[in-house]
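Lab meeting, item 3. Inverse folding demo.
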């Protein structure tokens, strides 16, 4: 089984959106027994809270479930649990790299999945308010990621 963790700042906007979108794609492909997805934040301001209203609005618009999702903070223990830890921006990646054990983790930046995009980081809609733009990036990137994960599974 492959385990994916998305990381953003507060775990209420970008990373839970990516978690929900990838989970939806996994279910539609019938791969939920082979790939698991979670999300976390580098900050602790929103621990236990559901995704942001803007994230929920976008997921509702596309019929994607976020049931049971609650913000949590990334920890060193995550490095041993997840095959991929995907950070939504460079600041998140830098903060994750500061945690003990990070040198052994498979870290990557989300926008590396979309090398032709102008953005090199997923903009934070908590500050920009542009949840539609973030959804489009997340949906496209999760499609590329799922193809990569399916390739990884075929090699196992």
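The presenter then showed the designed sequence:
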């Amino acid at each position: 089984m492959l385990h994916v963790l998305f990381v953003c700042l507060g775990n209420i906007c970008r990373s839970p959106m990516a978690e929900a979108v990838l989970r939806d794609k996994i279910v539609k492909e019938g791969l939920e027994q082979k790939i698991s997805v979670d999300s976390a934040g580098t900050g602790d301001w929103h621990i236990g809270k559901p995704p942001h209203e803007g994230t929920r609005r976008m997921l509702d618009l596309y019929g994607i479930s976020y049931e049971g999702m609650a913000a949590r903070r990334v920890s060193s223990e995550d490095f041993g649990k997840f095959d991929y830890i995907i950070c939504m921006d460079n600041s998140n990646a830098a903060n994750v790299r500061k945690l003990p054990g990070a040198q052994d983790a498979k870290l990557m930046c989300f926008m590396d999945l979309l090398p032709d995009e102008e953005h090199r980081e997923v903009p934070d809609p908590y500050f920009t308010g542009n949840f539609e733009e973030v959804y489009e990036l997340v949906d496209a990137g999760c499609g590329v990621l799922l193809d990569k994960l399916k390739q990884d599974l075929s090699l196992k």
